[in-house]
Amino acid sequence: MELVVLAESERWRVIAKPSGLPVHRSALVDEKRTVVRLARRRFGHQVAPVHRLDRATSGCLLLSNDPAYTSVLQEALGQGEKRYLAMVRGRVRSLEPVRFDRPMKDLAGVDKDAATLFAPLARTGEAEEGDRSHGPRSSLILATPLTGRYHQVRRHLRDLSHPVLGDTSHGDSRVNRWWREHYGLGRLALHCLSLDLDLPDGERVRAVAPVPGDLRRIWQQLPWWADAVAACPELEPTLESA
Predict the structure, then answer these.
(1) Of 30, 54, 66, 201, which residue is the catalytic one?
(2) At 81, is the secondary structure helix, strand, or coil?
(3) pLDDT of the residue at 188
(4) pLDDT, mean over the chain
């Protein structure tokens, strides 16, 4: 597997992480093939992930080339912006953006503030309400987390009764099975579309990860695809190798 570089400088790189590839080894991940290992082999030096993406999530992943600079990148990213595309169960009521604030417990069981901005891009139309030719109702949402909690986007969408399709932890197993059997959706329909942050020296980190081919092939078959592209032109390019 070859990692695709989306943007880079001497101190950092943004790569397009494929779905199914863990970022690094951990107590829950005992595999040799990880982003960190592949990056070391590809670039010839050790890298440090500045943030994490779940194994099943694809998209922009920021790596630090200099261990001494990792904390600087992490702080800048905390002030910057990450945007995710999420294909969810159900037809959202409105296409107006909404900020969702709901605390969530961290891994130690302590409640932490959590806020996410959701901007629906497209949804199953009212004309398709009783038409199952395209399967269960669905929507495509652009999510911008304003805090950085574990599984924040996935958990907030679940709390809004619009879980991400393909989510085996927070989703609807019956609906997930339908999409897997009828459209071949065998992964989490969550993709980190872009990163945008400013570094202390004035350098800007900006990267967009085109929609992977597996998701794009499914989305193009759905009645809301044209509306989604009109609302978010960044959906148009494709990255078949991701």
Answers:
(1) 54
(2) strand
(3) 98
(4) 91
